[in-house]
Amino acid sequence: MKTNKFRLSTRLIAYTALMTALTYVGTLLGFSGGQFYFNLGDSVILICAYLLGPIPAMIAGGLGAFLGDLTVYPATMLYTLVIKAIEGLVAGLLFMLLKKVCEKYFAKHVSERMKDYMSSHPAPDAQEDLTGSPSPDDSISVSDLKQAPIMPEEPTSDVAADVATGETAAVSNSAEGAAPQSDEMPGSDVYPYEIDAKTSAYDNIKALKKHVVLLTVALSLPICIFSTALMAVGYFIAQAFIYGTYAAALIALPLDCVQAAISSAVATTVIAIFSYKSK
User: Fold this and answer.
1) 32-46 burial string, b = 16+ CB within 10 Å, else e?
2) What total number of domains does the chain contain?
3) Do 57 and 147 fall into the same domain?
């Protein structure tokens, strides 16, 4: 048990280090035009928050973006360390909440659909109990046996011979509309029902998984926008301290909003692909 936990922690550390490196590379691979600058660092942070959770996203976002600013623009590297760490933490917490909501939604609706199906498609034995039809064992009453005793040594009729040879059960089943049992497929009268139930359950769960994927994608976009909006507000406050005036910070705010919008769109697209592949 401890070995599995150790392996999981080692794997998580390795993935966190990988996402930190990708955040660093994404911060460097940007587009600069005049006062506008765009990079893929925020997209990597959001994807890390969805895949690994809040703590790895906080580490990868803060450290990776810090190293990126240290390489290209050291003036904001300390602000970036805090801002991107908060962005990854908030996004990870929201994605963790989203996954719990989707799991509860899936479990609840699977249970409801299975109950509805089983209530509308009862098993053959349950159908006989509901209709009140007599079972094969009740086709011959005790009084009839008393009035016409059957001697196994000398059968007096074809019916008695069938009783003596054990073939009355097959005849009674045929009379009641049930298929006789065979050696090749025991319980063949229940087998089609089981196939029908399994097929219907599979189709219901498959459709429900698609709904969960759509729900995940639909709610991922607001989470990404909210997290990157915090980033834009954080840089607005940081630039107000750097330039000493809010007017200068307001000039860069629309550019940070464009960065947030593009990063959210890219991250949501990648999250949708991951959700569909792992549904």
Assistant:
1) eeeeebbbbbbbbbb
2) 2
3) no
CA diameter of the chain:
116
What is the token pair recorded at 21? 């490196």
What are the start-end ranges of the H helices in 132-245? 142-147, 158-165, 168-175, 191-243
Helix pair angle (54-72, 2-28), 10° resolution: 30
Residue 112 sits in the same domain as residue 13: yes
The end-to-end CA distance of the chain, in Å, is: 27
Judge contact between 84 and 45, C-beta under 8 A: yes
Query: Which of 163, 169, 177, 168 is CA-nearest to residue 133?
Result: 177
Instruction: Select from 189, 207, 235 the last residue of a domain.
Output: 189
pTM of this prediction exceeds 0.85: no
For the four alpha carbons of 55, 57, 63 and 69, in that order, the dihedral sign comes to negative
Listed residue (218, 253, 216, 259) closest to 236, CA to CA:
253
Contact call for residues 208 and 113 (beta carbons, < 8 A): yes
Tokens 């908060």 label which residue? 86
pLDDT tens string 124-179: 554 445 455 544 444 445 455 445 555 555 544 454 444 445 444 444 444 444 44
Could you tell me where the beta strands, DSSP code E, fall in the chain?
30-33, 36-39
Integer Cα distance of 54 and 269 in angstroms: 20
39: in domain = yes
Residues 6+ apart with CB under 8 A from 204: 110, 113, 114, 117
DSSP letters spanning 52-77: H-HHHHHHHHHHHHHHHHHHH-GGGH
Give domain status of residue 196, yes or no.
Answer: no
Residue 208, in any domain of the structure:
no
- Are 22 and 105 part of one and the same domain? yes
